[in-house]
């Protein structure tokens, strides 16, 4: 069965420091990979996606993610964290049927 | 452009009562999804519609859950009867034919079953 793993329940980082939120996925064909962010009492907001092409994908709000096929990873990164980035982040994998398999989520806490 | 609209935002019911959730997708999006999100977990697909046809309902507990999208636009998800374990957030999402792998989510309906 397809799966997505987010090994960290929470990531803590100081404002202005770089941040990384980790994601690994199970291998099956060519993966479609996504990152979504969820703020309290809000729906999921799309950040970025990898379908094909460059391994470094740039998305909304200064976020980027690096696709690493050999490590089956798709880590989310940002060079300089903001307090307003504090939220719940979900990695997801899609397939040819466009069904999304989500990870369990990682809570990002950016302290001032 | 208006986003995905869901109502109600919150619902509290007694167990064994029926409940219904409504979703209006982004205009022009032919694909509609219902997801279940338990506390502390990622969303899980319940059902996917292509226009008015349910093309993937393998994860929908059909003994108590039902859904419809009669005119291929808005959709209703129903639970009858509700159980304590149904307490969760029910998310609706939609995507377009042109960009099928990018889903836009509504704010969700938070259901509490007492």
Structural description of this entry:
Chain A has 112 residues and is an all-beta fold. Chain A has strands at 4-5, 10-14, 19-21, 24-25, 32-38, 44-50, 56-58, 64-68, 73-78, 87-94, 100-102, 106-111. Chain A is built from no helices and 12 strands. In chain A, strands 2, 5, 6, 10, 11 and 12 form a 6-stranded mixed beta sheet that branches. In chain A, strands 3-9-8-7 form a 4-stranded antiparallel beta sheet, with no helix packed on it. In chain A, strands 1-4 form a two-stranded antiparallel sheet. The mean pLDDT of chain A is 92. By secondary structure, chain B is mainly beta. Helices cover 0% and strands 48% of the residues of chain B. Chain B has strands at 5-7, 10-13, 19-24, 31-37, 44-50, 53-56, 65-68, 75-79, 88-95, 104-105, 109-113. In chain B, the strands form 2 sheets. In chain B, strands 2, 4, 5, 6, 9, 10 and 11 form a 7-stranded mixed beta sheet that branches. Chain B has a 4-stranded antiparallel beta sheet with strand order 1-3-8-7, with no helix packed on it. The interface between A and B is medium-sized, with 23 and 26 residues.
């Amino acid at each position: 069965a397809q799966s997505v793993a987010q090994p960290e329940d929470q990531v803590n980082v100081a404002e202005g420091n770089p941040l990384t939120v980790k994601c690994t996925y199970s291998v099956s064909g060519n993966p479609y990979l996504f990152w979504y962010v969820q703020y309290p009492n809000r729906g999921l907001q799309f950040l970025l996606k990898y379908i094909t092409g460059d391994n470094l994908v740039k998305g909304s709000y200064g976020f980027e993610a690096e696709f690493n096929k050999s490590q089956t990873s798709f880590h989310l990164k940002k060079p300089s964290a903001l307090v307003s980035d504090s939220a719940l982040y979900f990695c997801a994998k899609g397939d040819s049927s466009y069904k999304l398999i989500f990870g369990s989520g990682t809570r990002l806490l950016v302290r001032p | 452009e208006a986003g995905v609209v869901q109502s109600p935002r919150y619902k509290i019911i007694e167990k064994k009562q029926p409940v219904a959730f409504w979703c209006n997708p982004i205009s022009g999006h032919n694909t509609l999804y219902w997801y279940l999100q338990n506390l502390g977990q990622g969303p899980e697909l319940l059902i996917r519609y292509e226009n008015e046809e349910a093309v993937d309902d393998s994860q929908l507990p059909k003994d108590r859950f039902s859904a419809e999208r009669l005119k291929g636009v808005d959709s209703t998800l129903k639970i009858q009867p509700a159980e304590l374990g149904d307490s969760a957030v029910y998310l609706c999402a939609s995507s377009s034919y042109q960009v099928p792998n990018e889903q836009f989510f509504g704010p969700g309906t938070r259901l509490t079953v007492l």
